[in-house]
Amino acid sequence: MMKKYFLITIVLFFVACTSTENTILIKDKESLKKPIRIAVLSFVDAPQYPGSGTSVADALTNELLQISNWDLVERSQIEKILKEKSLDMTGLTDSQLTDIGKLAKTDYIIVGSVSDYYYDRQFYIVPKTKIAFNARIINTQTGSIVGTLRYNRETNKNAWCGCCLLGWYYLPVLLLTDQNINTDVSKAARDVVRAIERDISGKKGCCI
């Protein structure tokens, strides 16, 4: 029984060491309730973390498939257009992105950038991740921004406290709770898409 309570304490400790900010603002809710074609473009990579933008965009695309009236356009179509026009995502203006979205026959595009994309094991055993990104939903017909989002998630930010407080008991539990950056990226995508659905539908609820 004591072991059971101890494990519960550990789980609660991990939860306490996780902070999440998930801010969604949708201006044109009625239009997004209708059947639309939308594409998620590769995000701009976080500094010193090449590939982080694609990872976040992939995770969001996978989760957005859950919205029944949204038809997701393959990013390869967008990338083909970029290649044909000898363009790169980095540095493109909203006007250029809108034109690319039109050529791909999308109603909306989601563009953004990753500011943090970090994974490490403190003290060689304690997993710590941090992921943060911003994004905009752009109407390709008008060029207007109809939605914005900001996401910031950090896990085990005070994990060193756990090592001090829980001592050697910490190690076996950590070995049973492996974590990596992909886990947090998937979690981030789920959080964001659920928040988008709630905002569009007008339902209230926790974002986490």
How would you describe what is shown here?
The chain is an alpha/beta fold and 208 residues long. The chain has a single domain, classed as ABC-type transport auxiliary lipoprotein component (Rossmann fold, 3-Layer(aba) Sandwich). The chain is 43% helix and 27% strand. It is built from 8 helices and 6 strands; from the N terminus they run H-E-H-E-H-E-H-H-E-E-E-H-H-H. The protein has helices spanning 2-16, 29-33, 52-64, 75-84, 94-103, 159-166, 170-176, 181-201; strands at 19-26, 36-40, 70-72, 108-122, 126-139, 145-155. Strands 1-6-5-4-2-3 form a 6-stranded mixed beta sheet, sandwiched between helices. Helix 3 (52-64) links the parallel strand 2 and strand 3. Helix 3 packs across helix 8 (181-201). The longest helix has 21 residues, at 181-201. The radius of gyration is 20 Å and the shape is globular.
